Amino acid sequence: MPLQNRVDPFGAVQAVAAPGLYMGNRGSIHDPERRTLLKRRWSTKAWIICQCRFKGRRREVMGRNGSSGGAGWTELFFLDEVTALAAGHRPCFHCRRKEAQAFARAFAAERDRHPMMPAPAMDAVLHRERRASGGPVVNLPPKSPDTLPDGTMVEVEGRVYALREGALLAWSFYGYGSPDPVPDVEAGVALITPPSTVDALRRGYRPAWHPSACS
């Protein structure tokens, strides 16, 4: 039975036996005895994207990893960084410092007086926007995906896609499908990636894709 720790683009945490290129967390949200999630889905507004391997450190997934023997933070896994960004996470300043700084610079452009937006300020914005923490559904006009930057995820007539090089790639926990043209639909197009993250993508942040998107 797979653990409930795979995150979909909407930010929901599912029990799926699928590998993930990235790990992340939202604080401590699991019971280490049963290795199951608690009712809450976050204990902090800082939702981050981490490397799966960092300086040889090892953890028991959803076990007791806290310094005092408690649960510690809960390991969550994403297909890739594009998925994690859609779910409302951001790069970690500890294990992915270079990427975190690049994201903070792109996030701050035209929004903040400083060249790099502080993590708590980004977290506050994202917490208001991401679907999983109660952010609004942003409906888009027909053909609008053509105007969105690569790495944005959208919902089209109930299906989840990522934008890449002017085409839509159908998303799953196991990878992306073949590129499809943007459909000319009259309704049913909604933004999944938080708007502020879309702005950061438009201003130059380049997320890591699963290899299936590049084949």
Order of helices and strands: EEEEEEEHEHHEEEEEEH
What can be said about the biggest beta sheet? 6 strands, antiparallel
Question: With helices defined by DSSP (H or I, 4 residues minimum), what is the helix count?
Answer: 4
Average the pLDDT over all residues and give the rounded result.
Answer: 91
% residues in beta strands: 15-25%
Uncertain ranges: none
Helical coverage, percent range:
10-25%
Number of strands: 14
Strand order of the largest sheet: 9-14-10-11-12-13
Structural class: alpha+beta
Q: How far apart are the termini?
A: 31 Å
How many domain modules? Answer: 2
Which shape, going by the Cα principal axes?
Answer: globular
Radius of gyration: 17 Å
Explain this structure:
The chain has two domains: 4-133, no CATH class; 138-213. The chain is built from four helices and 14 strands. It has helices at residues 81-86, 97-108, 119-129, 195-202, and strands spanning 4-7, 13-15, 22-25, 30-31, 36-37, 48-51, 76-78, 90-91, 138-139, 153-156, 159-164, 167-172, 175-180, 189-191. The radius of gyration is 17 Å and the shape is globular.
Short description, anyone?
With 215 residues, this protein is an alpha+beta fold. It has 4 helices and 14 strands.
What topology emerges from the helices and strands here?
Elements: E1 4-7, E2 13-15, E3 22-25, E4 30-31, E5 36-37, E6 48-51, E7 76-78, H1 81-86, E8 90-91, H2 97-108, H3 119-129, E9 138-139, E10 153-156, E11 159-164, E12 167-172, E13 175-180, E14 189-191, H4 195-202
Helix pairs in contact: 2-4
